[in-house]
Amino acid sequence: MNKRVFHCFYAQLQSVMLVALWSIGLFFSLFTFCSSSDKDCIVGIVGHAALLPCYHQNELLSFHNLSVEWRRGNELVLKAKWEEDGDVVIWSLNHATIPRRAPITGNFSLELPKVSAKEDQMVYSLFVTSDENDTVPLCSMCLRTAARFSSPLLQKDEMAESNRTVFLCQSSGGFPKPKVYWLINDTEQPPEDSVRTNATPLPDSNLYNVTSLLTVNISTDDSVSCSIQNQWMNETLTSKSSGAKDNTIRSRASEGMWMFSTGLCVAVGIMVGAGVAYQIHLDRISKKRRVLYESTKAQRRYKKHQFLEEETQEEALTSKETCV
Fold this sequence. Notes:
324 residues, 4-stranded antiparallel sheet, 6-stranded mixed sheet, alpha+beta
């Protein structure tokens, strides 16, 4: 008898557990559908918009006074509430947005208009509330931020005293801190103590400037390359110094450019000098013409004045003769 009671109790317990597990599975299938793994992070480019995906399989319009909240940690980023009459009220921080038809389409994704490097490794979570249910987590998403580094600038400086060569590699404006790799002749890694790398954050932006210094003893025919690797951007930028041959070509190109620039400056100087001389010549001609015109004008006035005096004298003589 005791065995029968035990078996009945065990069967009932199994049925209760199955129902509970089925209910829990149904609950999460109803409320939780996000990315394949919450541990996966969305990579947002600094200064650009980012979309944090969150999708729901069933309509939520059946809930009265439905509202959702996107939170960054404990900070409220966005709150949206759908009223029974269909109106929606949305409040957001820094102009974050969510689709207005989210309860119908099931798309509750959060769009951030501009990502900052300060948001790196932040966890965003979406919570659903209604009159019938308490707050329920719908999605949780990690945001990683990244920014592209500039193409590395590689400079070479030979030290005559120690017969060593110093290579300076610089890149700027990226995030997060990159990995810097040096290679000699595309295959050989330099000794660790020959490399010094420093990443400095830019003020008010959290972006990085990176400087790496390589001091080695190599021949003039050896090539050296510097690579800046940004893991989150899945991007590697490389600059290469290709030994004496390329240096000779570059020096010849520099000499040619210098000769061209010098010739151009001389030609421009000659043209400017010729223009100034021609302008001086025109000014002299104009001045001579002005002097000639003034002298001619003065002679005309003198002749006119003399003519008027002679005419006056003739009239006076004529009047005297008439009186006599």
